[in-house]
From TrEMBL:
Pfam families assigned: Lectin_C
Any one GO MF annotation of this record: carbohydrate binding
Membrane-crossing residue ranges in chain numbering: 52-75
Organism field: Haplochromis burtoni
PANTHER family membership: MANNOSE, PHOSPHOLIPASE, LECTIN RECEPTOR RELATED
Full protein name: C-type lectin domain-containing protein
Length: 308
């Protein structure tokens, strides 16, 4: 072992490094007995240990510098990405304001809902009242119609005049100050001429309908007093065109001014020269031309008689 030592020239540092190298050498010699000669060559380069130590320290310093720089950059990023205390307080205040706004909106919605329910309740009561008033109105209307019919019936039986009380023969009715005879019995059927003869024997003639009011009252009387099974039956009136086809004249010689013909009438089908009236709700379409020899019901009219 003494032959492997190298003079150090009295340098303490050199001896220390030589001691480390010799120790490494002997350790290597302990595990590799067969490579003694190569180790001897290694120990003969004492400056290599200094370079290894310097390189190691330099690498370590570089790694530490890189880590330090990386930590600094990471810290700066964290600082930039995080909020400050002022930002946190501002966001908290905004959140509180939003919560207050939400609560206010909820309360407003509740109040609106209560108001809507109240309005709906009042609307329901209004609808009930409207329904009630409508029912009362309909009742009043029905009562008025009933009273009107009763008044018309009374007028048809009794009419007061300045010169005294007028009356009609038995079987005749007084309506609008005129006596009328309606052949309402089911077995009373005559031709147009026979009907006129009957009226003239009673001091009158077939009815002349020369106004809208008279047409309306005549048709309404037929609807209200005739048997429902005979509503399709027509009645002779004092109108014909037997002297000149198409020229309709009343029995008093006046020309027809306004007629109340049904659609398509008069059509003179099979020589229809006499007129008849039907009990139709639409009295504007209640007339038809009929063959004068056909048997129909009839209506007479005459002036009332004065009571002595």
């Amino acid at each position: 072992m003494e032959e492997r030592r190298e003079p150090t020239g009295g340098n303490f540092n050199g001896g220390f490094k030589e001691f480390i190298c010799e120790e490494d050498f002997y350790d290597e010699e302990h595990h590799h007995q067969s490579n003694r000669h190569q180790v001897s060559m290694f120990t003969m380069s004492p400056g290599r240990c200094h370079r290894l130590a310097a390189v190691s320290l330099a690498l370590l310093a570089a790694v530490l510098l890189i880590v330090d720089i990386g930590l600094g950059v990471h810290y700066n990023k964290l600082t930039d990405s995080h909020l400050t205390l002022d930002d946190t307080e501002r966001i908290s205040k905004e959140l509180i304001n939003l919560q207050d706004t939400y609560k206010t909106a909820v309360e407003t919605m509740k109040d609106a809902r209560k108001q809507l329910d109240s309005e709906m309740s009042r609307q329901t009561q209004t609808n009930w009242e409207l329904e009630h008033q409508t029912k009362r109105s309909n009742d009043y209307k029905n009562q008025m119609e009933k009273v009107t019919k009763e008044i018309e019936a009374m007028r048809s039986r009794l009419s007061m005049h300045s010169d005294g009380c007028k009356r009609c023969p038995v079987g005749w009715i007084l309506m609008n100050s005129v006596c009328y005879y309606f052949s309402l019995k089911s077995n009373e059927m005559k031709t147009w001429k026979e009907s006129r003869d009957f009226c003239q024997l009673q001091g009158g003639d077939l009815i002349i309908i020369d106004s809208q009011d008279k047409e309306n009252s005549t048709v309404n009387f037929l609807i209200n007093h005739q048997d429902a099974s005979q509503l399709s039956t027509d009645f002779w009136i004092g109108l014909s065109d037997s002297k000149e086809e198409g020229t309709w004249k009343w029995l008093d010689g006046t020309f027809l001014v306004q007629g109340y013909w049904n659609d398509g009438e008069p059509n003179n089908l099979n020589d229809e020269d006499c007129a008849a009236v039907y009990p139709r709700v639409n009295f504007f379409k209640a007339w038809n031309d009929v063959r004068c020899g056909v048997r129909r019901k009839w209506i007479c009219e005459k002036a009332p008689e004065s009571m002595s």
